[in-house]
Write a structure and sequence with these properties.
Layout (H helix, E strand, L loop, with lengths): L7 H9 L12 H8 L4 H22 L1 H10 L20 H6 L1 H4 L12 E5 L7 E5 L1 H17 L8 E5 L19 E3 L14 E5 L4 H11 L3 E4 L1 H10 L10 E4 L6 H11 L3 E7 L3 E6 L5 E3 L4 E6 L11 E8 L10 E9 L12 E5 L13 H14 L8 E8 L5 E7 L5 H13 L9 E5 L14 E3 L11
Parallel strand pairs: 3-5, 3-6, 6-7, 7-8, 15-18, 16-17
Antiparallel strand pairs: 1-2, 4-5, 8-9, 9-10, 10-14, 11-12, 12-13, 13-14, 15-16
Helix pairs in contact: 1-2, 3-4, 9-10, 11-12
């Protein structure tokens, strides 16, 4: 790939084109982000190591889960002083997080503290989890989002559009979710508007029909559109693989695009797709540069690519993607297994930035392009219901997978360690009935299985469909 490397001066010049709000005219945060992007790699490693060591020490002192885990493994957490030392620590699994919320919470914080927030995720790997976050950790999302907007060269004065699930969009008066077919929005961009003067933002439900979404795009013509990779592919197909009027850039979130999907969408629309990598448990983790690498937000997290034994893989090899958070003392995540598979990188990136990076993420792929209309809202609705269930209802749940058969019937396959709460199935069936508002009756059966098989690429998928003729394996 031939690209022109950027520089500190070029990034500073583009940053200067954004007009800060009066209260942020002296804010040095964004200048600091640029400085970090061009620091000496050894300096970056030493700085990140210090932050990680502080968090490991804090976790060993104040988090019951880590205190006991370190003691059981004979680990002196105060001796973890380098990034290489991290491999001595156990990997934190999604199961640990799902079942250990109270023990993973720092004894230094109180649930009564109103500044704390709980982030929930349904888990693209099939395990619903929640994480307690400090305000600082949560607020870092907007700052890091603006780093990626700068990398994507977004003109903040333009209109921004989102087609996402209703529960991620602005709420209507009284806190109600936006209705399918309705537009909701704001005079400023959702995150950028906290710091800079921006154009307006318009939002539309992803559960609306594809023709309605195309009409909405034609009517509102946002310069930039954020949506899900699978939905962007569906829109490309529904639009006859023709360009979208007025849209100049696409931002794909939540799941990772395969190369085939990216080629189809970019070729159809004639505009680039920008991507980041993040997860609700940790926030924004990395942003993809023009050279295709994912660069880590070192101010917020540290990333490792490891083998099955938790040891670093060789450059160019694939491995499990682990994340260590360094800004959330309420519930530190140390070597958290995201469930994703990525490829390790080495050496300088052609983009010119020196932030640590990794290559393709070959997990987190949920695809709907080949499925019947109505599949996406049913699957997303079911996953949302699982995410919102009380923890005690999920105590014995270890994994789940939604399976769509060729007759459009669904199975929720659950791997359990004991009997599920009596309300589990009843709640899901009630929710499923409301998800069939389109008049189609697609039955849902809950089935206990001994094991849920990963895809050939090694990824545990939360949704598979017999309609996906192209194959759902993200490693293809």
């Amino acid at each position: 790939m031939n690209i022109t490397a950027t520089s500190r001066r070029e990034e500073q010049a583009f940053q200067a084109s954004w007009r800060p709000l009066e209260r942020h005219k002296d804010n040095k945060t964004f200048a600091h982000l640029i400085d970090n992007e061009f620091r000496d790699p050894e300096n970056i490693e030493a700085s990140v190591a210090r932050q990680v060591a502080r968090m490991v020490t804090y976790a060993g002192d104040h988090v019951p889960f880590y205190r006991d885990a370190f003691a059981a493994a004979g680990i002196d957490h105060r001796r973890i002083t380098s990034l290489a030392d991290l491999s001595q620590l156990p990997v934190l699994s999604r199961f640990d997080l799902a079942s250990g919320f109270d023990r993973l919470r720092s004894t230094q914080v109180s649930l009564q503290d109103r500044s704390l927030r709980i982030a929930r995720t349904s888990g693209s790997s099939g395990v619903p989890v929640k994480v307690l976050k400090t305000r600082q950790s949560s607020d870092s999302f907007a700052v890091l989002w603006l780093r990626q907007a700068r990398w994507f060269r977004h003109d903040l004065s333009r209109r921004y559009g989102r087609i996402l699930t209703a529960n991620t969009l602005y709420r209507r008066s009284g806190g109600a979710l936006n209705l399918d077919g309705d537009t909701i929005g704001s005079p400023s961009w959702m995150y950028a508007g906290q710091f800079f003067h921006t154009g307006d933002e318009v939002q539309f439900n992803s559960s609306s029909s594809r023709p309605d979404q195309l009409r909405w795009l034609e009517q509102h013509q946002p310069a930039y559109l954020m949506s899900y990779p699978g939905l962007l592919e569906e829109l490309a197909l529904a639009n006859g693989c023709q360009p979208l009027s007025g849209v100049e850039g696409l931002v794909a979130i939540s799941t990772i695009m395969t190369r085939a999907m990216r080629t189809r969408v970019e070729t159809s629309f004639g505009i680039p797709i920008y991507q980041n990598y993040g997860l609700n448990e940790a926030g924004l983790v990395a942003v993809q540069c023009a050279a295709g690498r994912y660069h880590t937000h070192i101010e917020h997290v540290h990333v490792e690519i490891v083998d099955t034994d938790g040891q670093p893989v060789a450059p160019g090899a694939s491995g499990r993607l682990l994340v260590t958070t360094i800004t959330n003392p309420a519930m530190p995540l140390l070597r958290y297994d995201t469930g994703d598979i990525a490829i390790a990188a080495t050496g300088p990136c052609p983009c010119g930035r020196t932030l640590p990076s990794f290559l393709d993420v070959i997990g987190r792929h949920r695809r709907f392009a080949e499925t019947p209309e109505g599949t996406r809202p049913r699957v997303n609705g079911l996953i949302d219901q699982l995410a919102e269930m009380p923890p005690e209802w999920l105590a014995n749940l270890r994994q789940y997978q939604i399976h769509q058969a060729a007759d459009r019937s669904f199975e929720l396959r659950v791997q359990v360690t004991g009997k599920l709460h009596e309300a589990f199935g009843r709640q899901l069936q009630q929710a499923w009935a409301t998800l069939q508002s389109d008049g189609e009756d697609w039955p849902l059966t809950i089935v206990e299985v001994g094991e849920i098989q990963p895809s050939p690429g090694g990824k545990l998928l939360d949704f598979v469909s017999e309609f996906d003729r192209a194959g759902i394996d993200p490693a293809r």
